[in-house]
Amino acid sequence: MTQRTLVLLKPDAVRRGLVGEILSRFEAKGLSLVALELRTIDAEQADAHYAEHVERDFYPPLRTFVTSGPLVAAVLEGDEAIEVVRALNGATDGRKAAPGTIRGDLSLSNRENLVHGSDSPESAAREIALWFPALAG
Ligand code: CMP
Which residue among 59, 64, 110, 118 has the greatest number of ligand 1 atoms within 8 angstroms of its CB, and so is best to mutate? Predict the structure, then answer.
């Protein structure tokens, strides 16, 4: 089934010059770009995006990190796009993510793990509406 998913290339990806490399992996897989924007977010947008994590111990430094510089927000579309993007991203902790995945090849961190992908159809709908309201619906 064709799906859309919200992807963030976090500030570490922009700082490290990995935006092209990461987008290339999604494009090479066959996913299509529906929306793409460089954006610097404030704490309010970070809290809205990570609403399910705001009470967690790891959240305050995560908020500092995701607001620390520009990130790239994108909507990708394709067959089973939500699962496909999560497989390409790899496990959350870059130290444990499998080689061949974005995090496994390019990240050594649990926090600065380069990418975010929606984790379910419900999350994708919520996150796409939050980041790209014109696409909601
Ligand atoms: P993401 O896929 O964007 O979803 C939640 C984010 O929180 C995750 O990627 C990491 O950036 C961060 N995260 C999750 N668990 C931890 C943790 N234990 N320590 C630090 N950061 C974390």
Answer: 110
Whether 13 has a pLDDT exceeding 90, the answer reads yes
Catalytic residue among 81, 116, 117, 127: 116
Long-range CB contact pairs, 40-47, < 8 A, 24+: 40/67, 40/69, 40/70, 40/71, 41/66, 41/67, 41/71, 42/67, 43/67, 45/130
Domain borders along the chain are: 2-135
101 among annotated binding-site residues:
no
Superfamily name and number for 2-135: Nucleoside diphosphate kinase-like domain (3.30.70.141)
pLDDT digits (tens, 9 = 90+) for 66-78: 999 999 999 999 9
Query: Is 116 tagged catalytic?
Result: yes
